[in-house]
From TrEMBL:
Places the protein is found: Mitochondrion
Transmembrane segments: none
Gene: GCP1
Subunit note: Homodimer.
Domain Gcp-like residues, every copy: 26-362
Function: Required for the formation of a threonylcarbamoyl group on adenosine at position 37 (t(6)A37) in mitochondrial tRNAs that read codons beginning with adenine. Probably involved in the transfer of the threonylcarbamoyl moiety of threonylcarbamoyl-AMP (TC-AMP) to the N6 group of A37. Involved in mitochondrial genome maintenance.
Family (UniProt): Belongs to the KAE1 / TsaD family.
Protein's UniProt name: Glycoprotease 1
């Protein structure tokens, strides 16, 4: 196991990332190229631009990951690459990685998958398709080597909000998801709306600004979480879970920005104050937004943990991961929730919460050890065209 060396490649959103990780969890290198300039220019992630930026960065990012690890591709045991999320937490992409090229996949993953296939083909290495959200989850088992299944996890990122019960490798029960925006997107929209500098990722910008503000200064239309009145008992919850994604309302919503924040502007903050770019008033908005957004998460997590513990009393840990989990306020609040419920919070360090290649490499290692990998694409196959 210790001799395993896996390269992980991640290009599913706006970061081009690669890392080399050893089977024992030792991180040999980690390289991330962000598309901060594009974010400023376009005010968000523009898929076509993101793909072009990935194409420009992918070669040097993977090479830098190998160089920093003092290795060449010949030394690798396998290549792992993000191929999803698809609609569910299964790993459907597995079997098609080695099929005849060019491999068809959503353009979001195309660049990374092509690079992964190219390396696997050239050096005849096994290739492992990795689900992005599973990678966010399992990286907690790299940072906390004692973390055993089953455990609960909350995954909070720019595109997803998921509450899951992790039973085993590749075996996850979805307890809840957002019915509209993910919480990271709400942070991003609020940052944009407040005119914060997008060159700093907007989540951290809100987090910083919120430290200066008074979280109780602004009354949102709904001071409690949007589904607070939606009290579901266990049976109802189960029933709802079976129905899939509409059951649990995790994460703040579009209309917090469009109704709550904008109405509050009209009603409670003198418009002149907000538009004067007065830093303190923007800090109050950031702090109040963050408080309500996270309050909502807390309440949903509490309920989901209670439910999960009834089903699976052996759960000891509550994993919180994904970009938003790098937020210190989020971590502190959810730590309290976990403690109240008798669970231990497991939260990877911030650099492993946001998108990275380490989580992909590590998830590849976990699957590889279980014999779940794909054979290399045929060496004489024509190259994929990016
Ligand atoms: O997991 P991630 O890096 O990419 C996706 O899979 O989406 O998450 C990115 C999201 C962005 O919405 C970003 O604003 C948010 O995570 N984020 C934060 C913080 N750092 C990143 N949100 C709040 N506070 C932070 N410190
Ligand atoms: Zn992510």
């Amino acid at each position: 196991v210790d001799n395993l060396i896996v390269l992980g490649i991640e290009t599913s959103c706006d970061d081009t990332a690669a890392a080399v990780v050893r089977g024992n969890g030792e991180i040999l290198s980690q390289v991330v190229s962000t598309q901060a300039d594009l974010l400023v220019q376009y005010g968000g992630v523009a898929p076509k631009m993101a793909e072009e930026a990935h194409s420009r960065a992918i070669d040097w990012v993977t090479q830098a990951a190998l160089d920093k690890a003092n290795l060449t591709a010949k030394d690798l045991s396998a290549v792992a690459v993000t191929i999803g999320p698809g609609l569910s937490l299964c790993l459907r992409g597995f079997y098609i990685l080695s099929g005849p090229g060019p491999w068809l996949c959503s353009s979001d993953f195309f660049v990374g998958v092509c690079k992964g296939r190219e390396i696997a083909r050239s050096f005849q290495l096994p290739i492992i398709g990795v689900h992005h959200m599973e990678a966010h989850t399992l990286v907690a088992r790299l940072t906390d080597r004692d973390l055993q299944f089953p455990f609960m996890a909350l995954l909070i990122s720019g595109g997803h909000n998921l509450l899951i019960l992790a039973h085993g490798l590749g075996h996850y029960i979805q307890l809840g998801t957002t019915i509209d925006d993910a919480i990271g997107e709400a942070y991003d929209k609020t940052a944009k709306w407040l005119g914060l500098d997008m060159r700093r990722s907007s989540g951290p910008a809100i987090e910083d600004l919120a430290r200066e503000g008074d979280p109780d200064s602004i009354r949102f239309k709904s001071m409690s979480s949007p589904l607070m009145d939606f009290k579901c008992d266990c049976v109802r919850f189960l029933h709802l879970v079976a129905k899939g994604p509409v059951e649990v309302y995790v994460g703040p919503m579009e209309n917090w920005k469009f109704t709550a924040i904008s109405q509050l502007l009209d009603a409670e903050i003198p418009l002149s104050l907000a538009s004067s770019h007065e830093r303190s008033s923007r800090a109050d908005i950031a702090a109040s937004f963050q408080r309500v957004a996270v309050l909502h998460l807390e309440e949903r997590c509490e309920r989901a943990i209670e439910w999960a513990l009834k089903m699976e009393p052996s759960i000891k840990c509550f994993v919180v991961s994904g970009g938003v989990a790098s937020n210190q306020y989020v971590r502190a609040r959810l730590d309290q929730i976990a403690k109240n419920k008798g669970l231990q919070l497991v939260c990877p360090p911030p650099s492993l919460c946001t998108d990275n290649g380490v989580m992909v490499a590590w998830t590849g290692i976990e699957h590889f050890q279980m014999g779940r990998f794909d054979t290399p694409p045929p060496a004489d196959e024509p190259e994929d065209t990016v």
